[in-house]
Each structure stands twice: as structure tokens, then as C-alpha cells.
Amino acid sequence: MTNTPHISVQDFNVYIENQHILKNININIPNKSVTSIIGPSGCGKTTLLKSFNRLLDNTANVKIDGKVLVDGENIYDPNVEVTHIRKKMGLLSQRPYPLPMSIYDNVAYGPRIHGIRKKSELDELVELQLKATGLWNEVKDRLNASATRLSIGQQQRLCLARGLAVEPEIILGDESTSALDPVSTHIIEDLFIHLKQKYTIVLVTHILRQARRVSDYIIFVYMGKIIEFGPTEEVLLNPKEELTREYVKGFIS
Ligand SMILES: Nc1ncnc2c1ncn2[C@@H]1O[C@H](COP(=O)(O)OP(=O)(O)OP(=O)(O)O)[C@@H](O)[C@H]1O
Ligand SMILES: [Mg+2]
């Protein structure tokens, strides 16, 4: 692979309530690219995505072994400090969850927590991220309006702007267009394609058309195992594994 991995998962296993959920995962996620995780419902896509951000820590009865290296640092090392790892990653979930405050305050929230107080600096950051997510022209005249007044698609872009405002390196998206209409979906997909110049992006999606449109690489997961990983066209159009072929043809649901 020409691209240096940003996230490197090594001999990684996850057990939840004594069930073996992720089985001996080994994968290198390329830097500054879009990688999509695809596979049938319940195969472990969300669990894999959460493992990049230590979000599984919040799950009851979870046991983890193996390593996940982010920028070369094993985030499961017992001595590691979780906050700076989480700060590297922005997570976009299925539905937008704007904070119950104004559009402006949503974007300024993270920077304020990180100690930025100066209004001019916050103004600049808010404008920058609202522009980065294509929202600026739509909201610049009502920055103090409640974020919940925005359409669902706009709310999702606002959540993305809120995440970008803390300067992550990695964006994780778990079916982050599933609540959106086709136009908003298209806008978010275009944003991912554009944002990969600056960020490493890992998406979970069950929409193969979306995976094909936005991703450079695809990971196909089946029953907790990675069956195939490779460039998008290869995995979707000319898969090496029979299981992948059946899935992309729609035989496994
Ligand atoms: N907190 C939990 N407690 C018990 N089992 C869990 C938990 N989280 C995940 N699992 C189990 O782990 C397996 C993988 O779940 P996961 O949510 O990762 O699948 P998925 O591929 O994201 O599915 P979907 O496409 O439906 O979102 C499933 O069998 C699920 O029931
Ligand atoms: Mg899921």
C-alpha cells in the first residue's frame, strides 16, 4: 500500500457478554482517504468503528485483546490517556444530535472547552467550520437561532462542523446519512469526498452505492471477521472472495 496507515488494528478481538464479536481483526486504515466498512446487519461494523475511538469502554461486559495503533500509539495500552485519543476523532452518528443551544454555540462548544475565549477567535472558527460544511450561507443570518430549528440534513452538517471545530485528524461516521433525505445525503457524501484532503475518514454504510461513490477503500465484514479489504472498485466489482461476491450481488442480507 502506498499510503501510510493512520489506524493499524493488530490481532484485535472483542468479546461482549462472552460472545466473540470481532475475530482476529488485522487492518491498516489508510491516511487521508475514505474507507467504508460494509457487511450484513449484526456482523460487527459499529463495534469495529467504536473500537477506533475507545467507545467500547462504555459497553458492559466487554473484553478486548490486541492492539489499535493510532499514529503509532496503542490506544489500548493501559497507560494511555483516553482524552487526547478521543480528541483526534470526530464521530458522526446515525441521527444528528445538536446540543440544545444556538447554531453558533454548537460550533463554539468544543473550542470553548479547550480554552478559547476570545470572541473574534471564536467567530473566525465558527465561520470557518460552517463554511467547511457548506452551511455558512444558509445560516449566517441566524447564528443565534436554536440549532434544533434547522432541517435534519442541516443539523447533521452542523454536527460535523461541531466535530471539526476541535481539529480532529479522523472522522468516523456510522451510517451518518441514514436519517437524511437524498439531497442532504448527497451533500454529506460530497463533504466526505472533499474532507479527505485533510482527514482520514472511516464510514460504516450498508448502502453499496454510497460506498462506491465516496470510498477509496472497502472493508467487508462478515460474522465478526474481515473477509476482504481493498480498493473500492476491486472489492465491489471484482472481489477476490466468494462471500464478498455474494454480498455485493445482494445474496446475503
Ligand atoms: N452492547 C452490546 N451488548 C450485547 N451485544 C452487543 C452489544 N453491542 C453489539 N453487540 C452484538 O455484537 C454484534 C455486532 O453488533 P454491531 O452493532 O457491531 O453490528 P453492525 O454490523 O453494526 O449491525 P447493523 O448493520 O445492524 O448496525 C451483534 O451480534 C450485536 O448483537
Ligand atoms: Mg451498526
Distance between the termini: 31 Å
Give the helix/strand class. alpha/beta
Q: What percentage of residues falls in helices of 4 or more residues?
A: 25-40%
Instruction: Report the C-alpha radius of gyration, rounded.
Output: 18 Å
Strands of the widest sheet, in order across it, are: 6-7-8-3-9-10
- The amount of beta strand, in percent, is 25-35%
* Quaternary structure state of the chains depicted: single chain
Main beta sheet strand tally, sense and closure: 6 strands, mixed
Bound molecules: adenosine-5'-triphosphate, magnesium ion
Mean pLDDT: 94
> What ranges have pLDDT less than 50 throughout 5 or more consecutive residues?
none
Approximate shape: globular
Pattern of helices and strands = EEEHEEHEHHHHEHEHEEHH
Number of helices: 10
Could you give the count of β-strands?
A: 10
Key terms:
single chain, 253 residues, alpha/beta, six-stranded mixed sheet, four-stranded antiparallel sheet, 36% helix, globular, binds adenosine-5'-triphosphate, binds magnesium ion
Describe the protein's architecture and organization.
- With 253 residues, this protein is α/β, with parallel strands linked by helices.
- It has a domain at 98-167.
- The protein has ten helices and ten strands.
- It has helices spanning 45-51, 82-87, 103-113, 119-132, 136-139, 152-164, 182-195, 208-214, 232-237, 242-249; strands at residues 5-16, 19-30, 34-38, 62-70, 73-74, 89-92, 170-174, 200-204, 217-222, 225-231.
- The strands form two sheets. Strands 6-7-8-3-9-10 form a six-stranded mixed β-sheet, sandwiched between helices.
- Helix 7 (182-195) links the parallel strand 7 (170-174) and strand 8.
- Helix 4 crosses helix 6 (152-164).
- The radius of gyration is 18 Å and the shape is globular.
- Bound molecules: adenosine-5'-triphosphate and magnesium ion.
- The site of magnesium ion (MG) has 3 residues, from helix 1.
